[in-house]
């Protein structure tokens, strides 16, 4: 098999009711954006092929958001396809792609799946998953064609600063002009309450490519709509040709709905950011309540974070019991192992479930932790 097996597939195929593993904000129901204009547009929609670069109105809306030219944007099937097309277009056999670990599993596995050399830069819980520029540059060689950084990072919710990215990009351009820097900013707009949204890295420097999508912050992963930006017109052309040669175009139905989602994103964001802020506050209190047993790194953005089961309390047997009792209680937990971390860590998504359900689930998890460490029966 070309792609390694990863149990993250259970998040799609074997969903449990109390989903603490999800990385998205609350799912959007079509009703939230349904009005007369939407309905009329839908009725008259011609189910033809789309265009290679993607629907023009949709690209216009994305370009306004990123403050870039729409001719430099390609609509993709989620950020996942933007990452895929970038690797495909920039790398040949024998070339290397560098990314960080922990990370969204398909990001790491795709490099291998496409037959390129995977180089992973390990980030550690103890160092708050911060990127070390020197370590990154030690990993780069003349064969490195692409570096993929993720901000905010899945599963940690850590972000890269503008100064950090600018410095890396300038140094990369000086030392390795044939290597591009892709910033996956899929979670960029998933902020909390009225917190400022992190500015995009699109357009910051010419060697930077960005990808993002409607999946996480708008709660519409099922639409499969994302976008790729590059200031390089030739690269945009290459990506569009690669798109036509693989999926031809996006679905015009998806593009239509995505356009309406973007037009109404202010309201869509508002509800989800309020929920994320409450979710984060609850998670913080929950971590404090259980500080004897667990620790975390507070995220900067994205409705997700990493929780670590303390080494002094949890042996491997207890860790396994924790996962098994959680599953038995109908709680979906995303093991750190999925992301290239140890299973002592797990990803906790606090923006997906309704608040009442999140409270109930965290209470159950406290009970499971206590039962695990005291070897008592679950009440
Ligand atoms: C960092 C990152 N990039 C890309 C994706 C894929 O998202 P999309 O639904 O936009 O393809 C994910 C999904 O979890 C992700 O975490």
Task: Describe, in plain words, how this protein is organized in 3D.
The protein is of the alpha/beta class. The chain has two domains: 7-27 and 266-373, Aspartate Aminotransferase, domain 1; 33-263, 3-Layer(aba) Sandwich (Aspartate Aminotransferase, domain 2), CATH 3.40.640. It is 40% helix and 16% strand. A seven-stranded mixed β-sheet has the order 2-8-7-6-5-3-4, with helices on both faces. The chain has a four-stranded antiparallel β-sheet with strand order 9-10-13-12, with no helix packed on it. Helix 5 links the parallel strand 3 (96-101) and strand 4. Helix 3 packs parallel to helix 9 and helix 11 (316-328) runs antiparallel to helix 12 (355-374). Pyridoxal-5'-phosphate is lined by residues 23, 78-80, 104, 150, 154, 184, 186, 213, 215, 221, 226.
Shape category: globular
Give the number of helices.
12
Q: Which architecture name of the largest domain does CATH use?
A: 3-Layer(aba) Sandwich
User: What is the CATH topology assignment of the largest domain?
Assistant: Aspartate Aminotransferase, domain 2
Q: Please give the order of strands in the largest beta sheet.
A: 2-8-7-6-5-3-4
| Number of DSSP E strands | 13
Strand/helix succession = HEHHEHEHEHEHEEEHHHEEHEEEH
Helix content: 25-40%
Class from helix and strand fractions? alpha/beta
Strand content: 15-25%
Report low-confidence residues grouped into runs of 5 or more: none
Radius of gyration: 21 Å
């Amino acid at each position: 098999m070309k792609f390694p097996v990863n149990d993250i597939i259970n998040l799609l195929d074997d969903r449990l009711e109390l989903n603490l593993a999800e990385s998205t904000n609350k799912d959007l129901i079509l009703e939230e954006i349904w009005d007369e204009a939407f309905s009329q547009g839908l009725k008259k929609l011609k189910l033809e092929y789309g265009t290679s670069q993607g629907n023009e109105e949709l690209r216009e809306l994305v370009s306004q958001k990123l403050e870039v030219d729409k001719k430099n944007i390609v609509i993709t099937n989620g950020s996942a396809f933007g990452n895929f097309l970038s690797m495909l277009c920039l790398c040949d056999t024998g070339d290397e792609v560098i990314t960080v670990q922990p990370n969204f599993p398909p990001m790491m596995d795709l490099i291998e799946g496409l037959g390129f050399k995977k180089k992973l830069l390990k980030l550690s819980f103890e160092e708050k998953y911060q990127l070390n520029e020197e370590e990154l540059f030690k990993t780069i060689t003349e064969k490195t064609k692409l570096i993929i950084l993720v901000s905010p990072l899945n599963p940690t919710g850590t972000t890269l600063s503008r100064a950090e990215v600018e410095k890396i990009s300038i140094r990369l351009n000086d030392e390795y002009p044939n290597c591009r820097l892709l910033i996956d900013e899929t979670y960029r707009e998933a902020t909390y309450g009225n917190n400022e949204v992190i500015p995009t890295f699109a357009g910051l420097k010419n060697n930077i490519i960005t990808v993002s999508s409607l999946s996480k912050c708008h709660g519409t992963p099922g639409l499969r709509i994302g976008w790729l930006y590059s200031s390089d017109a030739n690269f945009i052309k290459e990506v569009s040709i690669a798109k036509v040669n693989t999926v031809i175009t996006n679905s015009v139905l998806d593009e239509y709905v995505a356009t309406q989602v973007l037009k109404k994103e202010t309201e869509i964001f508002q509800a989800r950011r309020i929920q994320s802020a409450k979710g984060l506050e609850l998670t913080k209190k929950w971590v404090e309540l259980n500080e004897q047993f667990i620790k975390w790194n507070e995220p900067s953005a994205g409705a997700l974070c990493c929780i670590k089961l303390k080494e002094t309390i949890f042996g491997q047997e207890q860790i396994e019991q924790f996962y098994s009792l959680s599953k038995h209680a109908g709680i979906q937990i995303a093991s750190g192992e999925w992301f290239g971390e140890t299973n002592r860590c797990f990803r906790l998504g606090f923006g997906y479930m309704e608040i009442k359900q999140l409270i109930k689930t965290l209470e159950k998890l406290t009970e499971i932790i206590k039962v695990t460490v005291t070897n008592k029966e679950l009440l």
